[in-house]
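Backbones bend. Shown next:

***
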Amino acid sequence: MGLHFSEEEFKSRKSKVLNSMKEQNIDALLMFRQESMYWLTGYDTFGYVFFQTLILDQKGNIVLLTRAPDLRQAQNTSIIEDIRIWVDKDSSNPTDDLKVILDELNLKGKKLGIEYDAYGLTGKNTLRLNKSLKDYCSTEDTSNLITKLRVVKSKEEIVYVRKAAELADKALNEAWKHAKAGVSESKILAEMNKVIFEGGGDYPANEFIIGSGKNALLCRYQSEKQILKNPDQLTIEWAGTYRHYHSAMFRTIPIGKANPKHYIMHEACVEALKNCENKLKPGNKVGEVFDVHAKTFDHLGFNKARMNACGYSLGATFSPNWMDWPMLYTGNQYLIEPGNVFFMHMILMDSENNLAMNLGETYLVTKNGNERLGNKKIDLVIL
């Protein structure tokens, strides 16, 4: 069985969820987030693109409702013992199968918590679910119940986060090795991914971002792959991923020679990152970290080039993206705790001059501050 955590770890997680359910007077939890299922049971799949739910009641019963292709997936990767299958056909409505399970668990008339904010729960299936549960039980949106428990990493999780950081560092080495005029972006991506997989890593929850020239100003992956020129600029955002835990990094690399403004922008990114590091401490609010980021860039004249968020939590996440809760934006009241893992990215996109500069690192919050998990220099590297 491909379990990545100890029996004691899974027992601790289940106990925390049951306690939170009791505090919120929830009789049973319907999980639709793959992250919740993986964290609670080890269940590892991309089958959440279809209707799939994991039920946990106050008695501790765990039941998975999924499709046939995920039967053995759940058996081989998780601690789930009770696995139910809904059958594919034109008239299938898996919420009917769900009602059978809820009846068995004596949940009619009870209060169910539902993870509505989940990529695996489409609008169509949400309508089906709500119609099925109307007049059957009361419901409450508990999308963040497990998410708030996942945000503080255990000792076992931190081992995987550190391994992911090692893989991210190795990927950066490959980028520095291959990024030069005449080389394609495809080659760079291939070599970065190769070293991660050879190190035992996983697919990340979203694509690496790579772009040169004007595309260096893009914050999302797109399919064009260019040949690096001289001079040029190359932006890459990537993550080392291990057991689905992510450690992300971000760089803009001048190729051939740097534009004089690249130096100024990089100095601003370093200053902003250092200021954010000083604010990323237990007891501070994540919104305050963003405010320091914004104040630094605005003071240096980069208000129009900066973003409206400067990072987010990282952990074990699944497609379509590795961004986790909470995000670092102004006004966010989440209090930073030891065991949090945050990716902080300093992004400057100067559209007027078609210049980019990005610098991002992943941090583990400690008792008195934080630890940068990447071991690579943050100096401006020109290739």
